[in-house]
């Protein structure tokens, strides 16, 4: 196959992970910025950009923080998702289109040996349409890599009728040849056209060769909503009130002293971290009793029923959080959905080592043959990574829906906790107080609701303790809000059990 310019094209690189969940999330140095800056000020005057990567753990962008900051000036409040890296996928049009087609607004960034960074943005993106595409928002740019490293050069499209030439045999082609990238290996070409007015030397100096090309999907985060769409009071008094609610909680049935809450969800979603976070709030400092972390398979391999104490050596709180192994797409890996009904019914003992290839049997070691009401699960928390709900694989969605059907059959109330909202939205990374003002969070809450068929009112965002060494009271308030909802829902479980149907000697529900 040859390009219109007669060059032969490289082999098609087939992507197996185009729609895969992002593997690594990198925030562009936002979390470390001052959390004290006034909310109003940053909402109105500042824009944020966050960078994340589609399942390419080993692939990192070359963009430095100050370069990302300049991109903020060009793009506004966005997240950049790395789709393509020439040195990994190949410097060919086919490799580019296989990774970058149909991704929406797209940013192409080119790096030269002497350190220049330039490229182009198309709001319409690429789809191998084989036509000239009108795009009023397209522009070319060069970051300022000089002494001051602040203001980037922006060259807006002049005649937007042919802002890009989107053709499967061409790489990114801005303005029908004004600037073409990946059409001639590791060299850009430019020629005078009416579509962009610029001096080639301003973009890439004298030498058209480059050493790297990265392409990002540009996801709009949008501005903050003026008022919180769920009202939360962010005060120390509110934290104390919520802690008291949790400490004084009493399940509505005398035979049960602690509500048992099952935490379930995909690998790496933040299940163990959620327990650690709740535990931290009551311990008074950040804890990591449950091992958390990232691995190809679930870090949690055992069923664990965690008691939470009111401070070190304090008395146990009236709820138990049960951590589980992560769900996986691959067959024979992760939590088996068949284990869930057994957990709900209280047959699975603490410390049970999950077997991804075989469901728990009544003959399994420690199997609780006649569980009582106190051993059963009274509320289920689905934990989902807020950054991944939109691109949850069909297989994982199927498993979650299967589990939900079992939960419904067992009459167990359930909620969804969306973790990592700090990675999802830079506004939240700046301050957790923005969680219910973030359009990105609101969008993911709606997406989770649509994908799992769970009402929006049952979906709560949370920021787990993950990198912090000290507690932060806004975080605590958000975590405690989730806990309050869990306890209310657990009560709904007890409400469904008529008192006369509970065997007072064993505490078992007579059903
Ligand atoms: N930034 C951020 N990181 C989080 C959050 N929650 C969890 N993490 C991180 O995500 C990674 C996975 O968290 P875990 O709690 O181990 O997830 P898990 O669901 O228990 O994972 P498995 O046991 O492997 O299924 C860890 O590196 C956590 O620090 C969050 O709200 N924000
Ligand atoms: Mg875990």
UniProtKB/TrEMBL annotation:
UniProt superkingdom: Eukaryota
Q: Which GO terms describe its biological process?
A: immune response
Example GO molecular function: GTP binding
Show where the TLDc domain sits: 57-219
Q: Where is the signal peptide?
A: none
What family does the entry list? Belongs to the IFI44 family.
PROSITE patterns tied to this protein: TLDC (PS51886)
Name of this protein = TLDc domain-containing protein
Query: What InterPro entries does the annotation carry?
Result: GTP-bd, P-loop_NTPase, TLDc_dom
Q: Which organism is it from?
A: Pleurodeles waltl (Iberian ribbed newt)
